[in-house]
Amino acid sequence: MVKHKLSSSVNHSWQSIIQFLGLFCLCCFLVISCSQPQNNPNNSPPTDTNTNRITIGTTLKLRTVDPADAYEVISGNLLYNLGDRLYGYKLGTTELVPQLATEMPKISDDGTTYTIPIRQGVTFHDGTTFNAEAMAFSLKRFIENGGPPSTLLADTVESTAATGEYELTIKLKKPFAAFTPLLAFSGLCAVSPQAYTIGKSQFKPDTFVGTGPYKLAEYGTDVLRLDVFENYWGEKPTNEGVDIQIFSSSANLFNSFKTGAIDVAYLSLDPDQITNLEQEAERQQWKVIATDGKTVNYIVLNLNSEPLNNKAVRQALAAIVDRKLLNERVLQGQAEPVYSLIPTKFDGYKPVFEENYGDGNFAKAKELLEEAGYSQDNPAKIEIWYASNSTKKGLIASTLKASVEQKLDGLMELEANSVESATAFKNLDKGVYQTFILDWYGDFVDADNYIQPFLDCGKGSEEKGCEEGASQFQGSFYYSDRINQLIDQQRQEQDPEKRQSIFLEIQELLAEDVPFIPLWLDKDYVFAQKNISGVTLEPTQQFPFWTINKSS
User: Whole-angstrom Cα distance, residue 408 to residue 278?
Assistant: First the structure.
């Protein structure tokens, strides 16, 4: 992942976010920490065919389920199913609806005060009554405990307080048009004040006490058990609980699904494994659930390194990328080419890289490189870095390298290099790498979350680049006064049409300056056995467990 993830205005807390971002973006290969280890040497899932418990297999490694500390894909999906937030999304849509709130917020004329009515009759998993004070506690803890996602609120929220037993008031430092969608972020769920404390780094990685349809019954090194919360205020799950089996490799996950040892396979299978399961689905009566993803894969370019400090070289590199070829040959059609950092289904998306460069435009690349003074005797030398645990990104780097060797007449040389992902993200903001192939899983459903975390810079200059801010921590070091102004404007603009026009200008500058090259959007896949129903992938990228059912 990020996810990994970035969000909000930039300050010193970006450092911790990016480090966790790397682990998230690059498929969350973290070592799990827990207090209740399981002895399960064969990775055998706890299936029970006599009950309506669902067994879900995954390769994603779990680090924590503390919402104030969790910033990875698997923890986000667990919190989505274990907890409730003030707002969520109507299933099958990106329509915001109240959850622990009873109505959409009342927003002051200046856009800085949100008054939110709170749901009554809700209890936490430990029996504690939920009210506005408990919600205020949860949000304060999210901010003050200082975990990786804390800046999502810390840089935006001035104060949060119960202004009545069932009324919450949140005051912002300045208007933020996407604040209501932000409140649907999976980690902003209510937690019991009796089970948690507020304090710097006071986290409980293997515990969750919230208000959601499931309660956490067991947290193990390779097995998690979610039991139905009988006193849940909302729609009850259609199953009797969920067991999550964490596999050591995609091969183990693939084989376990094919042999029927698990009910559902979810993240992360290799492209060839996905193709195999799709081809056999009709004969085996497996269910294949696929949805357009919002995870953007991209190349970050270090503008402080030669020759990438020359805009013409960056533009040439953008021109040689053939997204359709990469999707066909490397990704096996399991992706969608994207020509901006904003996903294609978002309002305001503009395919600026397609308009400016096309796909595999080697004639344009040659022209740009020659104008910049490069030749066969003096080629532009660029290193393409990727995470060593990503076979897919390694193939992307190799394909780009081969294309340059075959079609650029020696004007550019690409060298493909790999490094372990954790090491990469310790060094990315230090300018160690010329380029890096990364992916980005958004925190909330708004175009801001695909622009501000990449292009914003709080301290820097056109001459020195970004010295402190989002683009520095991404490893780009891009600085633009105009971009900074536009980001601030769109965050405060309440008129959707005016806000979209600002995003259009931002994207045009992105394509002109090329601090990042967008590549593709991952498609999300879930596979289910023939006796499993109710499996869906949401447009928000979330995976609801409570709709899944098993027939005999």
Answer: 37
